[in-house]
């Protein structure tokens, strides 16, 4: 599958006349809890030639391939990505920290370093607690629930705890978050749930697990309160502007 993905990325560069700076896995495979039938969620950052950014007509800032049962591939223009990074967009931080990298350039490595200047504890907490609350409300209050949905709530809650403790962007892999932040009394139950998730299909349902639900319920409320008390710090555009200009210059044809 890796070669298929790389082939599609090369074709995107050729067809769209762009340079891909970074391409990674962004879904359950990178989160470390893929099911046997999980698809591949490939995300990438790309830069266009300087002339494209100087045109009066706007160029679409997203490239998307048709989704099929195996592959979901789309990417953001670097200009869009940097504007989102200025706002401490947690999705972009996840792409930059993905443990599964399909394609990487020196510019992508540099971007990882610059990104640390723009990490906001407050905005990240709000993002992850909102994700946890939405999935918890919509999927985990019935008597029978989909096993995978527990990880769509556990992961953001553990990410919040990581952020509060370490004041940095959380890792993507659930195993890293669980090792650092999961309470000891839940480890056996979560380990059993993870084994079930990774060895059964995405649609499997199980009885609700009350001890995990109680932990999630209390955690969501406490994280919402803690997020309110965090300051929001203003940052300069300078590093992002400098990086963008260097990336556009590097994309010029020989």
Topology:
Layout: H1 2-16, E1 19-25, H2 28-31, E2 40-47, H3 50-54, E3 62-64, E4 71-77, H4 78-86, H5 90-97, E5 101-104, H6 106-115, H7 121-139, E6 144-146, H8 147-166, H9 174-181, H10 187-198, E7 205-207, H11 210-229, H12 238-250
Parallel strand pairs: 2-4
Antiparallel strand pairs: 1-2, 1-5, 3-4, 6-7
Helix pairs in contact: 7-8, 7-11, 8-9, 8-10, 8-11
What does this structure look like?
By secondary structure, the protein is α+β, with helices and mostly antiparallel strands. It has helices spanning 2-16, 28-31, 50-54, 78-86, 90-97, 106-115, 121-139, 147-166, 174-181, 187-198, 210-229, 238-250; strands at residues 19-25, 40-47, 62-64, 71-77, 101-104, 144-146, 205-207. The strands form 2 sheets. The protein has a 5-stranded mixed sheet, sandwiched between helices. Strands 6-7 form a two-stranded antiparallel ribbon. Strand 3 and strand 4 (71-77) form a beta hairpin. Helix 8 packs across helix 9. The longest helix has 20 residues, at 147-166. The chain is globular, with a radius of gyration of 20 Å. The relative contact order is 0.15. The model has no long low-confidence stretch (mean pLDDT 93).
